[in-house]
Structure formats: C-alpha cells, structure tokens
Amino acid sequence: VESVETQVLVVGGGLNGLASALFLSQQGVSVQLVEKNDTTARLLRAAGVTARTMELLQQIGLEPEIREQGLRLVPGEHWREKNSPTNLLPRAILGAKKLADIGNESAFVMEEGSLEVEGVSPQEPTWCGQDKLEPMLIREATKRGAEIHFHTEFVSYTQDADGVSAVVRDLGTGVERRINAKYLIAADGVTSPIREGLGITRTGHGTMGYVLSVLFAADLDSVVDGRRFLICYLLNQYAGLLHRFDDKRWVFGLFWDPKRYGDGEVSPEQAEEFVRGALGEQEIPLEVELVSKWRLAEEVAETYRVGRVFLVGDAAHVHPPAGGYGANSGMQDGHNLAWKIAAVLGGWAEDALLDTYFPERHPVGASTAYQAYLRQTTRSESDGAHPEMVNSTVVTTGYKYNSEAIVGGYDGPAFEHELNVDGRPGFRVPHVWVGKDGAKVSTTELAVREFVLLAGPEGQTWVDGAVAAAGALGVPLKAYRVGADLDDLDAEFTARTGITGTGAVLVRPDGFVGWRGAEGAPDPAAVLEGVLKQITAR
Ligand SMILES: Cc1cc2nc3c(=O)[nH]c(=O)nc-3n(C[C@H](O)[C@H](O)[C@H](O)COP(=O)(O)OP(=O)(O)OC[C@H]3O[C@@H](n4cnc5c(N)ncnc54)[C@H](O)[C@@H]3O)c2cc1C
Description:
By secondary structure, this protein is α/β, with parallel strands linked by helices. It is built from 15 helices and 29 strands.
C-alpha cells in the first residue's frame, strides 16, 4: 500500500472541512483532505456568510470574488420594493399563507434582521451559496499546497503518541492508500463516523423534526411581483420555507411530519404536489430537480478532542438552520484550530494549547445552537421575540473565549445580550480603521500568521518589550503603536480597545485579544514573556 506523510489529515470536504484545510494551509501546515462524494455540494444549504467569516476570507483574498458571485444583503424593509436589482437581497424573513400574499403585500415580517455591522466589522455579511463558495475554498487551499481528494473514502485509522495512521480508498479505482499525519480533523458532518467511533456523546434538544428539501425551477417572480426576500415561511397545510436558489430555481423545505407523510421515498410527482400546495399555485409551470430529506436537530458533542483527533463543524455541533449560523461557526472552528496546530507543529507552543480548542469553541457552539433553536421554535406571528434571543450580530461577532490561552479572560456566557466588543481579553479585537503603508486596513485584518501587539501612541515600551519577549521565545510577532507607526484614522483606537495612550492589547493569530494592559508597566518584556508563555502553554 502506498503511504503518504502529511501534517494534518482532514476528513470531509463540506464547507467546514474545506475551510479547515484552507486555514491550515494559510498557516503553512501541510494538509491532505479526503471527501467521499465526487463533487462539491449540489443542493444548497449554507448561503449566509457572516461578517466575521468574511473577515477571514478577506485575509485569503477572496472577498471581491465572493461579493461578485454572491448577493448583497440589504436591510429587510426593502422587501416591499418591486423589481429591485437582482444582486441585492433584502434580509427579510417573511411569513405568508400562500406565495401570492407577497405579491399583494399581505405577507408579514417575522424577522427584518438589521445588518448592524457598521463600526463592528470592516465587512458586510453576504449571501453566497456553498455551491459557489466550496470551489473557491478548494482552489485557494490547493494554491497554498493542500491536497484535496474527492471521491476518496476515509476507511479506518489508529492513533498513538506520535501521530495518526489512516487508510483511505479511491472510490474510482478501489485503490487504498495509507496517510500518516500528526493530527486528524473530523469534519465528516452531522453523522460523523469518526465521532461515533470514538463514542463521543452529544447533548441538546435532539431531533426536532424532519425537512424535505425540494429544488425546483419555476418563474415565481410573477407571483411575488418582483419582490425579493431572504426566506418566506409558507404557513398552511404544507408548512415549510421557501428561498431562492438562483435566477430560475428555488428551494422549498417542507416540514416533514412522519405521522402524516410516512417515511418512504418521495417521488418527484409527490414533491411537486407538496410545493404546489405550499405555494398555493396549481397552474404555474414547475419542474422538480432534486429531493432530499434531512433531520432538524440540536446536538452538541461533549468533547471536541480525543488525543490527536479533533471534531469540527456539524460533527461537533448541529442545530436548525434558522439564523444561518451552522457553516459559519464551523469555519470559525477550523480557524481557531489552525493557528494552534501550526504553533505546536512549529515548535513554539506546547500540545496543551490544543486543549484550549474545546473550552473556547464549545461554549460558542452550544450557545449558537441554542440561539438557532430559539429562532426555529418561535416562528408564528403571535410568538413575539423570546427574551433570551440575542441579535445575530452578537451571535456571529460578539462572542468571547475563556481558556488558558486568554490571559485575563473571565467566566460567563459565550455572548452577552448586547454587542460589546470593547478590547476585553477573549473577544475579537475591536474593528478600528488604521493606515498601514499608505493603505486603509482594519485592526481585524492585521494578525494572520503571528501575534500582533497594538499599543497606544505612547506605548513604545510595550512594543520593545513585545519584540524582546517574542524573540526570546521564538514566537512570531509584530508590534505597532497605533497613532504613531500606524495611523489612527478615526482617532478611536484607545477608546475602542479600552486602553490609555501608554497601554496595549495583544492580538492572537486568530484575531482575538489574548491580553490587555490598560497602561504602561515596569518591565514590559517580562510581563509579555509571561503572557506569551501562558498563551502558548510553555
Ligand atoms: C436548509 C439549510 C440551510 C442552511 N443555511 C445556512 C446558512 O445560511 N449559513 C450557515 O452558516 N449554515 C447554514 N446551514 C448549515 C450548514 O449547511 C451546515 O452547518 C454545514 O454545511 C455543515 O458543513 P460540514 O462541512 O460540517 O458538514 P457536511 O457538509 O455534512 O460535510 C461532511 C462531509 O464529510 C463527508 N464524509 C463523511 N464520512 C466520510 C468518509 N468516511 N470519508 C470521506 N468523506 C466523508 C461527507 O460526504 C460530507 O461531504 C444550513 C443548513 C441547512 C440544512
């Protein structure tokens, strides 16, 4: 059997496995990825890309392409406009008894979802289906050296103190290969055979129902009178949700009641009947292209790491699609793990840094799943907002970490009720525009493959101390005074990060604040050496 050496083996080529492979290769880690399907996703699931995910993809250089291929989200109230430009998508979630209610404006708004990223992120969220995004991730990961093998099944593995040894099979030729890696990332989806094999249990509300997704072609624009919207819940005897797939096609997800519909296969003719019933359109030409049934569930794994194996994405946490969080949080999992793996493989962090993946990502995963659960279960016109429901921008951008790799972090829920990204350790660095080498960049873009110390304009001693400490420890780091080395374009840096002119924040390679010193201190090099040692588990 041919045998291949790599640093990380990723199992699963959905959005989250591909993103993990991309972020690892961005960190200079060698990656092999195997995916048993022979193509990327055909039936659209994830399409909402959050501002935070856009920040990460901007660092890859993908932002212009995603914006061009995707749709620009605009505030929900625009849904009432007729024939609005086809590259805009009002962020309105509507409810209606039949589709024609949208045409005559008797539909009601369930959630208008303001965008609220102004001042929070340099990026706007966008709408770009996984059918478009996945090929981009493959291309960029491959460009950075990752080897991505579709139509290849992960068969088995063993792990010991030195690494993981796996057997994979080419499904075209049947030929098996051995892949030896230091780590294994299980991005093998909600049914995760790797998670099941490890006996990892999950908690949560469990199965909440089933959905029959139907991809179909029809000209519905005439029915809605050219109005555009994110999702429409059709609330009648064929209850389900409708959204656009592309210019000609739509997806309808029927809430599947096994007692009523049974659990046999669904023919295209039956699917057409459901879609017509839900839309309230018996005459319009309509062609069903694809039908698939899936389980609606909220389940979060009780551990994300066993030895050299890590769970990422739906394998770690699954929840209803309401809110559009699933793939975004899975991509953030991969991003959290990538720099830590690179640091351990690069010899500048100890293995215990990898133990911080679970305490950082699990509370966020569980809290996000709960927010999706609340959104899924409060959907009728009379429900009103649930008191525990927090704004989507808080869910996707305002969460915090608390672990050994955050100095001065604190306990408490993963996100607060209000958005408060204010420079506290554990939160993503506040977004402030700075001038760097003549270009306008966000503080959220600065840390990629190294730590970045950002000091106030009088914080030169922190800059010198950081460079000395990082040098002594062999930790990659850059240091700047904002308002001196970098221009503080809106004169907001110290106020937004909660420091004085002599203070500093240390940003980890994933963009999260790992430590904050509100003002100057004696012996900055010793302070930062202690901080860097703690974060890197040395
Ligand atoms: C209707 C719907 C709408 C959604 N909308 C959004 C949205 O707007 N935004 C958002 O962020 N999320 C959304 N989600 C959630 C999102 O789709 C999922 O969270 C995400 O796609 C999961 O990605 P994944 O890579 O973790 O898993 P998957 O996409 O399930 O990928 C796992 C892969 O592993 C492969 N695999 C498994 N076993 C093996 C093996 N032994 N060998 C090789 N390969 C294997 C599988 O073939 C599969 O391709 C939505 C979900 C649904 C159902």
